[in-house]
């Protein structure tokens, strides 16, 4: 039985929901439990990475009964999956600077600021490592980026309407071209992500877009 001094959910989570973390948006005590557990998960990923993620330690750190954590999230993969859903929901909205150059620069700077942040950079490194070896984590990470790309897609659509780039430019492909060089340096070569790197990525992606490189087929 869970100790009364720990956070517990007011009602049990149905088994089918527990098998798919992040599909609920609970309120009240259940929301507090989820917030505490996801914060503890993020801390653990930043400190020790995915492979050291331990359900019992997450429960203790969050002040939540172990039974609740195992019932709702099931495994470390379930924790990471739900954390990614939460991160997508909490991400900042897209910029609207009035021009595509400014919007893409804001996007690139957001990516760079996230990856170079000591805490969030470590979290993303751990999540990317988890996705490389677990299919469920990979799907969750892909869903996270689909959500973020969809949030930023209107900046490309507006730019095409203003005549800055050709009509029919694929927003997702253009946005990927901006962030891809940053993630390459972050995950593969471990090079410093400087302002110059960010600006070069924006300039190259814009030039390609104006030449029609990202037109939908």
TrEMBL record:
Keywords: DNA-binding, Transcription, Transcription regulation
UniProt keyword Transcription present: yes
Start and end residues of each HTH tetR-type domain: 31-91
DNA-binding region per UniProt: 54-73
Keyword Transcription in record: yes
Coiled-coil residue windows: none
Region (Disordered): 1-29
Signal peptide (from-to): none
Transmembrane segments: none
Superkingdom, taxonomy of origin: Bacteria
Alphabetical list of InterPro entries matching this protein: Homeodomain-like_sf (IPR009057), HTH-type_TetR-like_transc_reg (IPR050109), HTH_TetR (IPR001647), Tet_transcr_reg_TetR-rel_C_sf (IPR036271), TetR_C (IPR011075)
Protein name in the entry: TetR/AcrR family transcriptional regulator
Organism name: Streptomyces exfoliatus
Phylogenetic placement of the source organism: Bacteria, Bacillati, Actinomycetota, Actinomycetes, Kitasatosporales
């Amino acid at each position: 039985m869970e100790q009364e001094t720990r956070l517990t959910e007011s009602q049990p989570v149905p088994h089918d929901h527990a098998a798919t973390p992040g599909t609920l948006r609970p309120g009240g005590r259940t929301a507090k439990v989820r917030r505490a557990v996801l914060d503890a998960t993020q801390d653990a990923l930043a400190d020790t990475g995915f492979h050291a993620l331990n359900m019992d330690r997450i429960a203790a750190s969050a002040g939540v009964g172990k039974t609740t954590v195992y019932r709702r999230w099931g495994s470390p993969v379930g924790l990471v999956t739900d954390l990614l859903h939460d991160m997508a929901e909490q991400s900042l909205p897209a910029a609207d600077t009035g021009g595509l150059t400014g919007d893409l620069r804001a996007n690139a700077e957001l990516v760079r600021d996230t990856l170079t942040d000591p805490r969030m950079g470590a979290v993303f490194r751990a999540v990317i490592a988890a996705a490389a070896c677990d299919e469920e984590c990979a799907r969750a990470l892909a869903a996270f980026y689909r959500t973020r790309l969809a949030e930023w897609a209107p900046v490309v659509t507006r730019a095409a309407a203003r005549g800055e780039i050709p009509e029919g430019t694929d927003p997702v492909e253009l946005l990927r071209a901006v962030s891809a060089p940053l993630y390459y340096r972050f995950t593969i070569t471990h090079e410093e992500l400087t302002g110059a790197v960010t600006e070069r990525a924006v300039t190259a992606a814009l030039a390609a877009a104006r030449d029609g490189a990202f037109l939908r087929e």
